Each structure stands twice: as structure tokens, then as C-alpha cells.
Amino acid sequence: MSSPTTAPLAPNLASAAAFADPSDARSAGRALASSSSIPTDSTDCFHCGQPLKAGAPFVAQIEGQARTFCCGGCQTLAQTLHAAGFGHLYGDITRFARPIDADARREAEPVWAAYDTPELRSQFVRQAGDGRSEVTLAPENIRCAACAWLIEQHLGQLDGVESVVANVATRRVVVRWRDASQGVADLLSSLADIGYAAWPFEVSRSDQQDRRERRGLLMRMAVAMLGMMQAMMYAWPLYTHEATIDPGQLQLMRWASFALTIPVVFYSAWPIFAGAWRSLRHRHMGMDVPVAIGVAAGFLASAVATARGVGEVYFDSVTMFVAFLLLARYLELRVRQASRSGAEMLARQLPATCERLAQAGGAGERVPVARLQPGDRIRVKAGEIVPADGVVLAGASELDESMLTGEARPVRRVAGDTVLAGCFNAASPLEIHIERIGAQTRLAEIVAVLDRALADKPRLAQVADRVAGWFVGTLLIMAVVTGAVWALWIDPSRALLVTVAVLVVSCPCALSLATPAALAAAGAALSRRGLLLTRAHALEALARVTDVVLDKTGTLTEGRFALVSTQTFGALDAQACRRLAAAMERGGEHPIARALAESCDLAGADTDHPTVSDLRNVPGQGLDASVDGCRLRLGRREYAAALSSSANTDECGHESLPGATEVWLGDARGLLACFQLADVERDQTRALLRALGALGVRCHLVSGDGVAAVRWWADRFGMRTAFGAVTPEGKREYVAALQQRGAVVLAVGDGINDAPVLAQAQVSIAIGSGAPLAQAGADAVLTHGGVAEIATAIKAARRARRVVRQNLGWAFAYNVVAIPLAATGHVTAWMAGIGMSVSSLLVVANAWRLLRIRATAREGAPLSAPESLPQGREGEL
């Protein structure tokens, strides 16, 4: 028997755009239901409605009529449904299959085409290189893994589309394609063909859709709750005093329950039927299928019993089940909307309008931010948010960049400085030249990285999706077998009720949501702490990390020089020597020159700077200048001492710091001072190492710096394993050696020379301030926050792994226990509805706990005492 899930998609698929008018749908359903038969020469498949393939079709007798099918999977499924007594669904559900109305498509096409105009395209489409484009779409009505599979398969068949990844938890679809082959309009039109209204993801429109979705679901749930309470009111006398109630009154209460259940089934449960029909039509079992069958069977059987005046009615169970199911979906919706990334939450704060200037200092006009173009000049007043990336042309102000960089203090920006979208102007007006807008801004890049990471499906999620699809198919077979056994051998009067209970009590949604809900919540929590996951497997790998390989410069240290020691040898004190050095180095571009000038300026900020003239730079040696009329040299020891013919440099003894760079100051009398500059330790380095030790993770310091310098830093940090003078290839080989011994390695770095080791490790994190090449190859990027967040990420990943296992364990255990109880008649339909809803809620609530992730260690926590280091040699491990 061929599998329905592997059958190819047909090109002309039905659209949900036609579902808007239920009255028209019901009329079409009645007309189709009145048809007595479908001839065997029909050109469409009886089950899915797709055109029959060339060659002999599959033919089977259904209710005494010869029906044609496009494949064995459709034939088998149709026979199974009819054998279970659900053949009437083909007459009722046909109303969902109306094609898109021609007028509606003509009305929508100009809207779709607008997204391919240069103005809107720059807002939503990202360039992925090599003539490829990428866009994030936000389709409606994604309910389960079957929906995601259908979208991926359908869009993946379009010419030029290279990858499609749909995520159930975030309801985002990331599509990458070759520019010449498709446009955004083609993608949106193609999604509409299979019943999913969609648009390019936009924060403001996403907000509107969130509110509209909440209102719609609340309205459906309110109708279901009201119908449930009223139906229970009429059902209660039937349960308790049926024998004493007048038959006429009894029948009146049944008709009242029927009338109250109609809006629950045809309005509140409408999305369930629509989702089930999409799954059946495209031969992929989604979690709405058994639910829709259970609701339809319970309602129709009760309606027939009411019309005949004989038999049991289950209106109360149907309404209660729909109400509880919608409650579970509403809570799930709130969790998903609460799992927004920190960057997306920031994007919601971007202004809708800004002040655009026609000329410098002139009057401005308020225009929508969407109309800005690169090259425009805008004014951002105090208290406003920068709407796009650009360069300051005029003015000076303090900007709050904390949400982008993690820097808590406002940063001063003056003419010539770069400013980013999302920064808050805290002080004075700025005139800004726009350079990047929309999808090209740094903020949009961060959101895109998160979308790609959330859209990618890790191995565990893929397995869960496959299991959920298999589970639904198995459940339908079990329901058929259960109904047949009860009808033939146990109690025919209860066969339908037991069958409905089996369909309803199962919880495939818990299986489908168990993994993506937990991963989405953990990823959102980490993004708010400054760690962006860029690869799907990052969380899984982080949970298994046993060893962390750390670079020194830019990772454990800030990668910038600072003055750590001043030793004097002449008549001048340390402050006077620093003032002279700062005067000579002021304006220099070398990192050491800038560090020396900045450090010395701090010491003499309140005094006048000396006058420097005749400044000369001697490559490889240092500076020679006249300072306040006195000739000075600043640079290498021998160079500074050579200004005095009588100076004996050996007499100037000093204490050398390993890893420090020495800069000497001398005049005609001899050496005056030795300035020692060293890299600056990151604030949270010690907290990171202590937290990793507490997690049982082994730390390795592998750096390209000299052996002595690396040993000094390792002693300072208390690290057991450290190697210096290691080449980029040597770092990669070191990680490979650890992996051969069974280690799961996390590599952390920031430079281009770290790219090989980041690629070799099972999981890697790049420091956000580092080289773009390192960030591009990393599985996660630390955009802001302290390095201690690396340990927090490992802890969060382990917690997420536990939550996923708990969710999957609960989902399997619940179904293993609940389905046999329902099959043996111990669970009624309304009890099954509560059980299914509670099961889904537990899975979602358990994942929700991951949104609250705490730091693993406090900054500045003490480290254990340093231990002996392995002896390394220059250039070797």
C-alpha cells in the first residue's frame, strides 16, 4: 500500500481563500451531496480531487458505486473512511475545496505584485549572495507539522527555489531562491493556491495579525464555551431524569441542544475542518484529521438520532470537546507570541514616521519610514528612535544602544560616527545620512538570523514530525478497528461513542509541539540575553558539550591594549611622563599609540597638553619629537636610549610582565620611563570559567600568542590546559584530537584565524565584535552581554533537552494509557476532549518555563587556584 505522505503534490491545489463565506460553502456542499454518484470516467480523483494520471486509474467500489483514484494511497484511505462509517464526510467536506474565485485573485494580484517593486523589495528581501535572495514569509493557519510539510513541498517545486523551511512554533517560512526565477508575488500566489494566505514578515503587520488571530480565536472560543454551557444545561436532565421526563419535552431539549451545537460546529470548529481537509486533500495526515472526524461523527450521529427521535445524542460532548480544544490552542497561541526574540521585540519599537530634510539644517517633513531611501537626510530629535542605519552628518548626542550592543551606558556619537536603527537618542538632535533601510539594517540582519535558526529543523524535531504523521495514520486504523469490534461483538449502541473517544483522546499535537515549542522558547530566551543561534543543531550540540576550546585575544580578553604599569627612572614622576607620552602619541592610528594616548590622557585630563613640534615617525623604532622645546624619543628601548650617548640601558632595571608590550621614553639624559601595555581581561571571564567548571565542562586555552604570555594568562585565570603559539591549522587539529577521544567540543573565537577551529568543532560561538568571517561560520553569535552567557547557553541547552524529553515522554505515555482506556469504553467523548486539551497544555506550559533562563554565575566569582600547565613550544601543540 502506497503511503499518502509520499505522494507528489498536484499543481492545481484548492485555496482557503474561498472559505470566507460559509453560506456559499454550505450551498455548494448541499448541491454536491445531492449528487448520486461520480462516474468512473471522471477525470479527477474521488478522494483528493486531483487530475488522474495517464494510464489506468485505481478503481474501487464505494457504497455500490465505482470510484476512480489517482493512486493506491487515496483508494485505501477512502475505503478505510467508508468502512468506518464516515463516507458522508465526502459530501460535507467538498465545500472546502472550492478554487479561488477569479475576482478575488484579480484583486489580490496587484497587492502581491507590489512586493516585487524596488521600494518594497528592499524592505523585505535579503540578498544571500551569488544572485540569490531570501525572504521570511508569515502565512496564516499553520497548525501542525503537516502544514509545514505541505508548504515546504509545494514551494520547493517552484523553479529556482533552493530551500524552503517552515517552522510551526513561530509560524515563519524562510524561502531562498535565484533572483531571475521567482519573485515574492509568485511565492505568495503559490501559497494561496494551497490555502495559506501569507505576506512578507513585517513587524507592524505581524502585530496586527497577532491581534486579529487572538480576537478571532477568542470569539470562536466564546461561542464554543457558551454553546457548551447551554448544551450541558439541556443534557443534564437527560442524564439524571430521562425516565421521568415527558417524551415531547425530551425531544424538545434534544432539538434545543442541536440548535446550540450548530454554531459551535460550523463556526467555532471551522478552522479544524479546514485544516483537516487540507491534510486529506494533499495526502499528509495532520493532527486536525482525527479531531475533525470525531467532531463530525459525533455531531452527525446526534443529528440523525434527534431527527429520528431514537438513539443517543452527544451534543454536550461535542461542544465541550471543541471548547476545551480551542482553549488549549489559545494558550498555545499566547505562548508562541510570548516567545518573540529580543531583536523582534526591539523592532516593534521602531517609529512609523520620521522627519526627512530637503537640505542641511532646513525644515523637514514627516514621512513614513517605509518611504526612506539610501541617501536621504533625516533629523532625529531627543527622545526619538533612529529609524535606519546611517552616519551622523551634524550634531552630537548620547545614544542608548543597549538593546543592540548590551552597553548599559549611553554612547556619545558625533559627526562621522555610524548609528544603527533601534538606538534611542537620549540628548540632542542629530542629522543623519541614511545608508541602509529595511531588510538591509543591522537590526533586520539580527532578526533574519533568528528566523533562519528557528526555521531550521534539528534532527530531533524531524524525527518527532515523522512520528506524529505516522501516529495519525495508525490512530485512524485503530479507530476503525475499535468501532468494528464494538459494533459486531460488544455493544453496537456504544460503537460510535467509543470510536469518537478514541479519535478525540489521542494527542498528536503534543508530539508535534513537544520539540519545536521547547526549542523556540529556549532560543528566544537566549536571544534576549544576547546569544543568537544561527544553526538548527546548536541547542542540541550545546547540551552535549564536554570541552570548550577558547581563544585568548578577543574572547577571554577584549583584544585592546591598556596601560597597566608605568615605571620611572629619572627625575620626572609617572604622571609627568604619561603627559609627555600622550602628547607625542595623540592622533596616532596604531593600536598601541591609541591605547597609550587614551591611558595617559586620563592621568592628565585636567592639565594643558604639552606643545609638540618636529614630530618624526621612524618605522620599526618609534617617535622622535620636540616637546615643550625638549627632544624626546618614544618607542623601543634601544631607540629611546640612543638619544643619550652616555646612557647605560642595563642600569634601568624593571619588572617585566609576561605578555605585556613595553614602550620606553627617553631624552638626552637617558631613559625616563617604561610604559607596559597589555590586553584587557573581559569583565566576566572569571565568571565564565567558574560556571563552566561547575557544569563539568573542561576548558582549553589555545592561542596564537606566545607561550610565555599564554602561560601567564592561564595562571591568572586558573586554567589547567593552555597552549601558545598555535597556528589556525594547529587549533583545528587540536579540536580534531579531542573529538577522536570522544569529546563534544564547543569552540569560541572572534578572529579570521579562528574560522577553521569554529568549523571543526561540533558547535561554535563567535564573539559579535569579531571578524565577519568568524561570525558567518559560527553556529551562534554573542552580539551583546558578557561572555558568561556562553555558560548560560550550555545550561539552557541542557535544560531544553530535559524539557524536550519530558514533553515527548509525557506525550507518548499519555497516548499509550489514554487510547486503550478509550477503546475499552472507560473514557467518554467529553472526558477525551479534556484529556487531549490538558495534554497539549502541559507540553506548551512545560516549554514556556524555558523563557525564564537565569545566569549561571555572578560576575567576578572566585576561581579555583591555578594548577600546572602543560609545556608547549613555539608553533606546536
UniProtKB/TrEMBL annotation:
Domain HMA: 133-199
A GO MF term: ATP hydrolysis activity
Annotated membrane topology: Multi-pass membrane protein
One GO CC annotation: plasma membrane
Broad class of where this protein is predominantly found: membrane
Location relative to the cell: Cell membrane
Residues annotated as transmembrane: 217-236, 256-277, 289-307, 313-331, 467-489, 495-526, 807-823, 829-848
Gene3D superfamilies: 3.30.70.100, Calcium-transporting ATPase, cytoplasmic domain N, Calcium-transporting ATPase, cytoplasmic transduction domain A, Calcium-transporting ATPase, transmembrane domain, HAD superfamily/HAD-like
Record-level GO BP terms: copper ion homeostasis
CDD domains referenced in this protein's UniProt entry, alphabetically: HMA, P-type_ATPase_HM
InterPro entries the record matches: ATPase-cat-bd (IPR021993), ATPase_P-typ_cyto_dom_N (IPR023299), ATPase_P-typ_P_site (IPR018303), ATPase_P-typ_TM_dom_sf (IPR023298), ATPase_P-typ_transduc_dom_A_sf (IPR008250), ATPase_P-type_domA (IPR059000), HAD-like_sf (IPR036412), HAD_sf (IPR023214)
Domain of life (superkingdom): Bacteria
Keywords for the protein's UniProt record, in alphabetical order: ATP-binding, Cell membrane, Ion transport, Magnesium, Membrane, Metal-binding, Nucleotide-binding, Phosphoprotein, Translocase, Transmembrane, Transmembrane helix, Transport
Short name of any one Pfam family annotated for the protein: E1-E2_ATPase
Family per record: Belongs to the cation transport ATPase (P-type) (TC 3.A.3) family. Type IB subfamily.
Protein name per its UniProtKB record: Heavy metal translocating P-type ATPase
Annotated organism of origin: Cupriavidus pauculus
